[in-house]
Write a structure and sequence with these properties.
- The chain is about 70% helix and about 0% strand.
- By secondary structure, it is mostly helical.
- Helix 2 packs antiparallel against helix 6, helix 3 packs across helix 5 and helix 3 runs parallel beside helix 6.
- The longest helix has 20 residues.
- The protein is elongated.
- The termini are far apart.
- The mean pLDDT is about 85.
Length: about 130
């Protein structure tokens, strides 16, 4: 009876006071800025080599477009990004960066230095075009 109602009120109040609202999701641009900075730091000290950096650069860009547009851009190819993203979302200077990275990753095209020819310009182009 009475004790049970008191207990239910007390538990429901406790739950209301102790549950926190979910943290607001980080804005896509600030997320991208942080991830590009992290890539730049790894570029200075590439412990695992440059191919993972090339892969990480394209992954960061695709996740950014997914976060920005709420579309599954992180699973799309470069051609699909061009076709399926809303007009004006994919800046034209980024397309050659993604295409060079694709050639390096999938065709094994030997670049003289993937860090200098793909990752570094990709970070700079991304910052100029998206931030």
């Amino acid at each position: 009876g009475r004790k049970r109602r008191w207990w239910i009120k007390w538990v429901s109040r406790w739950r209301r006071l102790t549950t926190r609202p979910p943290a607001p999701e980080e804005a896509p641009e600030s997320w991208l800025r942080r991830e590009l900075h992290r890539l730049r730091l790894r570029l200075r000290n590439p412990g695992e080599g440059f191919p993972p950096l090339v892969d990480d650069l394209t992954s960061v860009l695709r996740v950014f477009f997914r976060r920005k547009t709420n579309r599954p851009a992180d699973s799309w190819t470069t051609q699909e990004l061009e076709r399926k993203l809303p007009l004006g979302t994919l800046p034209a200077p980024l397309v050659p960066v993604l295409q060079r990275a694709d050639r390096f990753k999938f065709q094994g095209v030997p670049e003289a230095d993937p860090a200098k020819e793909i990752v570094e310009p990709g970070i700079e182009t991304s910052e100029r075009a998206l931030l």
